């Protein structure tokens, strides 16, 4: 599995005098891939042999405390988080000499493994809950169940994001969501003066853009890419589906269900049926899509908040004509969007560089997620950082906006935060140690849709193949066999709410259906 520790520290063993030295690369892509986590997992023994050689610090002193964050991409955000963390030294009732190390997402997987092998991990690290659950089931990170249960105002998806076998292994820190970006100048040229409220309106408006202007109607990433899978998953949930389920005893895979077939065909229709996507879309990752939108060449884009932050901070002309909104309402009447984000997890003392008690690590997690503390860095992280529970809605910049980000953008992000879903988590309403691996080996479940868009692969065959790959991976990790599916899904078995799209009834555009 993705983060398995293969050795622990005996209670009487000596602590090493060095720690893994994470490096910061602000130019690196913040939209990381867990594929790198998988690739290094197979080489853990090698990493363990060399881990103790990196980052020697020459010893530790009483009160030393180390935490890692991946927030090194926006200088102002990093500085604000560093400053807030440093104030823990005065907040905590005891001696603390705190160090903040910044690691980039594309490097942290190897750094975690090396630090575990070298018994030199930080006391607390930013992670995604998939990592925390994996490490927790391995005995590498501590459960934070008691701290988590002190609060009862969690948003829905964060409320079970870190749950596994009756414990919570990652304490939700922030979430970030996908929104719809709309270039109002382009829409006005196409005869529209408002943003779409439904899928139908979005597709029709995008068609008008193509017909009436020289611009592109819609863009998201379309390649085998993390962002592609995220957009696809959002569409699947809005169609009433999920990628997984859990009946209390066993997991099941829904990636090749009729609803999943529909969402793959719906997304492919942007290129194959409605011709509203850009040329070369099948080869575009998230950065390519963002550049196309920021160049003023496309009416609609689904993307995360980093793009909005950069457009506002740089005073870009396209930002002046952009409206940010929740994802348009799908067939099931929801505006659900994919949810990203991070948690904070405390490593077990058997693996940490600095020997501190469990209470101190938990108090640091508590401190960093208190509304009063978050007010110190959330304005610099807007609109990418969003609350994980209701009490955090009452902090800046959600009540008093002191940023360069338009109020309407922040309001749209905050509204979207209450209606989110995360692949692997939302259907079963719990986590599992193998989910991080699966996200990596499938590029966020984008293998099938990229094969359909870019290689003209049969959609039914593509999604069944991807689903069986997932079943095989899960079977290798659990004590039951999910088996292989040999039955292809049928659109006739899709929910009734989807049939208007399948048949093209009334004002609903018909999806691409190569099986008619």
Automatic annotation (TrEMBL):
Region (Disordered): 1-32
Protein name, as recorded: Multiple sugar transport system substrate-binding protein
Source lineage: Archaea, Methanobacteriati, Methanobacteriota, Stenosarchaea group, Halobacteria
Taxonomic source organism: Natronorubrum texcoconense
Compositionally biased intervals (Polar residues): 1-10
UniProt keyword terms in alphabetical order: Cell membrane, Lipoprotein, Membrane, Palmitate, Signal, Sugar transport, Transport
Gene3D superfamilies: Periplasmic binding protein-like II
InterPro entries hit by this protein: Bact_solute-bd_prot1, SBP
């Amino acid at each position: 599995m993705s983060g398995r520790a293969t050795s622990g520290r005996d209670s009487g063993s000596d602590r090493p005098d060095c720690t893994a030295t994470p490096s910061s690369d602000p130019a690196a892509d913040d939209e990381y891939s867990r594929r790198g986590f998988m690739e290094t997992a197979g080489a853990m023994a090698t990493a363990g042999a060399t881990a103790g050689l990196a980052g020697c610090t020459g010893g530790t002193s009483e009160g030393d405390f180390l935490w890692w964050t991946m927030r090194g991409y926006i200088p102002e955000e990093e500085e604000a988080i560093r400053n807030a963390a440093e104030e823990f030294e005065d907040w905590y009732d005891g001696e603390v000499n705190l160090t903040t190390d910044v690691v980039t997402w594309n490097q942290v997987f190897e750094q975690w493994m090396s630090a575990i092998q070298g018994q030199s991990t930080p006391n607390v690290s930013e992670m995604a809950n998939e990592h925390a659950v994996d490490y927790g089931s391995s005995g590498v990170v501590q459960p934070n169940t008691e701290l988590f249960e002190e609060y009862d105002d969690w948003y829905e998806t964060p409320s079970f994001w870190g749950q596994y076998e009756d414990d919570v292994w990652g304490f939700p820190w922030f979430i970030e969501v996908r929104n719809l970006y709309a270039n109002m100048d382009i829409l006005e040229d196409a005869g529209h003066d408002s943003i779409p409220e439904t899928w139908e309106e979005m597709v029709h408006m995008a068609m008008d853009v193509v017909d009436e202007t020289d611009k592109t109607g819609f863009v998201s990433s379309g390649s085998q890419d993390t962002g592609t899978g995220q957009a696809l998953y959002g569409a699947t949930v809005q169609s009433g589906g999920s990628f997984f389920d859990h009946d209390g005893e066993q997991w099941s895979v829904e990636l090749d269900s009729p609803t999943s077939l529909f969402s793959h065909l719906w997304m492919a229709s942007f290129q194959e049926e409605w011709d509203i996507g850009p040329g070369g879309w099948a080869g575009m990752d998230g950065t390519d899509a963002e550049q196309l939108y920021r160049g003023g060449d496309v009416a609609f884009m689904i993307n995360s908040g980093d793009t909005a932050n950069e457009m506002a901070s740089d005073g870009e002309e396209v930002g002046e004509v952009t409206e940010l909104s929740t994802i348009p309402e799908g067939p099931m009447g929801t505006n659900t969007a994919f949810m990203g984000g991070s948690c904070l997890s405390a490593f077990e003392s058997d693996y940490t560089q600095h020997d501190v008690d469990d209470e101190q690590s938990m108090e640091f997690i508590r401190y960093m997620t208190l509304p009063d503390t978050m007010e110190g860095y959330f304005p610099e992280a807007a609109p990418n950082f969003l609350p994980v529970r209701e009490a955090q809605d009452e902090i800046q910049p959600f009540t008093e906006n002191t940023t360069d980000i338009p109020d309407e953008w922040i309001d749209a992000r905050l509204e979207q935060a209450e209606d989110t879903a995360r692949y692997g988590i939302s259907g079963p309403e719990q986590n599992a140690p193998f989910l991080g691996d699966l996200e990596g080996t499938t590029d966020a479940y984008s293998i099938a849709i990229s094969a359909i868009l870019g290689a003209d692969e049969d959609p039914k065959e593509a999604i069944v193949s991807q689903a069986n790959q997932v079943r095989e991976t899960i079977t290798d990790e659990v004590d039951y066999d999910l088996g292989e599916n040999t039955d292809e899904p049928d659109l006739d078995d899709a929910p009734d709410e989807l049939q208007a799209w399948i048949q093209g009834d009334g004002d609903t555009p018909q999806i691409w259906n190569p099986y008619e």
